Amino acid sequence: MNYYAAPVRDLRFVLEEQLEHRSLKLPVFEDASPDLIEAVLEEAAKLANDVWAPLNDVGDKKGTTRNSDGSITTATGFAEAYQAYAEGGWNGIGVSEALGGQNLPEVVASSVQEMLHGANMALGLCPMLTAGAIEALAHHGSEAQKDRYLPKLVEGTWTGTMNLTESQAGSDLSKVRTKATPEGDHYRISGQKVYITWGEHDAAENIIHLVLARKPDAPEGNRGISLFLVPKFLVNDDGSLGERNDVTCASIEHKLGIHGSPTCTLSFGENAGAIGYLVGEEGRGLNHMFTMMNEARHKVGVQGIGVAERACQHAFAYALDRIQGRSPRSGKADCTISDHLDVRRMLLSMRARTDSLRALALTCAAEMDTARHGESDEARDQAQARVDLLIPVIKSFSTDQAVEIASLGIQVHGGMGYVEEGGAAQLLRDARIAPIYEGTNGIQALDLAGRKLQRDGGDAMTALIDDVNATADRLKAHPRFASLGEALAAGSDDLRAAMAVVLAQGQELGQDAVQAYATPFLNLAGHVLCAWQMGEAALKAQVAIDNGASDPFYTQKLVSADYVLKQWLPVGRAQRAVIDAGMQCLSDFTVSS
Amino acid sequence: MNYYAAPVRDLRFVLEEQLEHRSLKLPVFEDASPDLIEAVLEEAAKLANDVWAPLNDVGDKKGTTRNSDGSITTATGFAEAYQAYAEGGWNGIGVSEALGGQNLPEVVASSVQEMLHGANMALGLCPMLTAGAIEALAHHGSEAQKDRYLPKLVEGTWTGTMNLTESQAGSDLSKVRTKATPEGDHYRISGQKVYITWGEHDAAENIIHLVLARKPDAPEGNRGISLFLVPKFLVNDDGSLGERNDVTCASIEHKLGIHGSPTCTLSFGENAGAIGYLVGEEGRGLNHMFTMMNEARHKVGVQGIGVAERACQHAFAYALDRIQGRSPRSGKADCTISDHLDVRRMLLSMRARTDSLRALALTCAAEMDTARHGESDEARDQAQARVDLLIPVIKSFSTDQAVEIASLGIQVHGGMGYVEEGGAAQLLRDARIAPIYEGTNGIQALDLAGRKLQRDGGDAMTALIDDVNATADRLKAHPRFASLGEALAAGSDDLRAAMAVVLAQGQELGQDAVQAYATPFLNLAGHVLCAWQMGEAALKAQVAIDNGASDPFYTQKLVSADYVLKQWLPVGRAQRAVIDAGMQCLSDFTVSS
Fold it and tell me: Could you tell me if B593 lies within 8 Å of chain A, comparing CB atoms?
């Protein structure tokens, strides 16, 4: 029962019908045709289904082993599955040709990521972190650094890591203490980093660590932090691997889930000091890291969607197999539980939410394509402003929902959901990390309600809400969808009203006061934006139906849309009342043990 | 950091101030004084804090071991901790003196249960199941059976189990196949039962299994099922233990949580057939079992509250210790995260919800006391009608909330929440079973919206909603609480309106149609009833403040009440819109893999 079938049909619906292959219209992607993209998705699905998915359970059960010399042995088959991925050229899918990649749009890269994370989230983390390293080096590395490190990273022969957190420096990275002492053309790095995903492993021949550290004379706080590149094996001028650098895995975490992903404590400079190289400008380490953080946050949202999709499939398969009770629909004795209305409620809730989250994440990916490659400054800036708003929503909302969806998946299984043998429990355990890493969901909410909303007085958000309203108007004008349009318009009004409250709080009382409203505001935005996407999906599905499509896929999208707009959106809309109630209680509250 | 302090102060507030020791006014409890109850709570807290709580982590890490002979070794210290409980007389706390118990009210027994489950949920399950067996025997056993088995069960020397589920018979117990073949004055039982909590263990000298099975000539379906008593060791006429019965533990489950609790597959009659004795009437096994199921469902709700309380304490302690970032309240650098408003939002949400769930569960316990011991038939019947409504709400809503609260507890911990060392993850893993066992939460919702609501046309629910309105009126009339009263009244109106929809559906389309509305209706009821309790709590806390109480405990109850009524209730009220939207989408939905 523990299988996974990559949702190519659903992905294609969003890319082709909902987004109308918008990204392919950008000149930079002129070589990419719809046929090519279809072929890419089908090939990625094969890798996901046949190679990665069967190892999901193995990774969970075997976990990773730290050997006495500090090396890590990943679960059986993981190294080979990673290599199959690298050899297939998947690592460079969204990377430009100039850097050795396939130069496909972000919408395609994100689709592939969703499939791979759905197949095997623990393994998917390895390339996810590498992508961050590629991004940071491509933007901030010197030409020599790019020449030396990027080709191997892009082809996946080497992997990358992000070394930010230290035990005293988590959400507050200004407290980073790792030291970088200048020595000729390089630095000696010493200190300890924690929670380093795939920080050490046996799946690739080298690991390129990107490390936040400070020079001995650097000022306190953010401005003293620089970014350094620290290879596991030093790289000779001819590109061959040289000496082992002074960085070791001191321990690995025993985690709730993603057991197949080694989460390492890395010790830099236990001996002579690890050799590292400054990347970008001195004192701009945090800024440089945030280049990759933003991308990574979108990817974590996509990861949540991948796991949510797998949880759907797992629960659907069980519900279609498990016989229990009399059907309330046909009256037949001994029906499968998929006939019970309360089980159907859970299944539809899982399916419809996952559909809507996917559409939102890919819509953001399309904006990312325009932000990078749009034909005018104005087009790029507008798209970037929208990406900036959407990313914290996609990161938090998709991952919070993924946890709920995985938990519902357990519930559908009944007792079998609670025993590990059933497979549903792993999905909750795996999903639970996603609201925490790459900036907790609370941090995302602050980013949205604080920085992103306040800096332009809500202009970008207003434009987004206007687009939601436009969709609501189109729904209202459609003979079939008037009630969906009313529902969406009401949600949109709530979001606009809540934005006004949050903006007023920010202007009157400053960014600190906004903190209290941040999570309810993001939650409201998530619901409204997902409902927006499903309104769009309904309109596009109806076009297909009107054109004679007989595929039940389309009528089922209408069902998903109906659920999201009428059954799920109201729950999100309640956050307006929460915001209107004010947040005095949070100040009156005394936290005491 | 992994500690627990039983919430005696909070429990006493509900028992003494909110419920005004209502149960003690029943003649049957004339020997129980407030002072005695205070002493009992303090003693139970010691057992919970000093003996049970330190083993919570041990049970999780060590789990239980099944030995090659089928015996079970529980985690180090568990057997002793159980024996300390039994020797302290705690097992009989809510049992009448006639049966060898302490004859204390259910409100007190439930309070003690909450503390013990908060301390160690996995261990708490052992006496919880025994209580069910006591209840079933006390109601349905013959005098000879009571004489032979009850004293040892009540004193806790022996434990009890409930053997219902078989692999093909879960929510649908009509499919039970275990066979009971008559043989003289007893039966030979053969078959396999799954998910038997504490089905085999080393913590007590005997185990009394209560087993659903059918005679060879019994009709199909529910009416063919009878209840049998099957001791692990046969009991001689003089009360001494005789031969080992033919029941063995075939395997134990590898579960997501409650690792300290052995969940067994029990094989009856692998050899000659296990000797069993009919309990109560032939063919009435399911009815007899439901006597204990109802009690057990309340206990599972209380268990959820216990774990939620522990998750609160765990998160509060971490938030008061973890330093990160600048305080948005004082501006001070390097504050504890308990100063961040978004963290405070999570903590208050955890605390306020737990407070309200506790008050509701104990209010139900007070009704249980009246239902059992009220002075008139009318008083008993009225109380029972209310208990019947409240139990499915308390079971489902407390356990769903416990899962959310435990998950928020992880979130408060950030990265440390995801590593097992932090202790927060165990609480989510443990809590996650509670929405599944003793009837899934979906089954509870059907029980409420179907049987309980429809059978009296909503009379009992109307009386309950009237009481909620009365509280809303008192709040509205109070100069401090007008806005809380408005909020509660609005919630109450929603519940009344939703009830009308559900009743109409049931009358027009039958019980099957009600299924679609059941979970949203229960969810709405849970929110409104919790809000009702916190409205009551606010009124009582204000009385104490008006009387000059300076304990900040009271002002903090007002903060909890404010949160529940203004920030949490609106989310529940959204379920009215969900219900009003109708459930057509659930029928239109095609479940396909």
Answer: yes
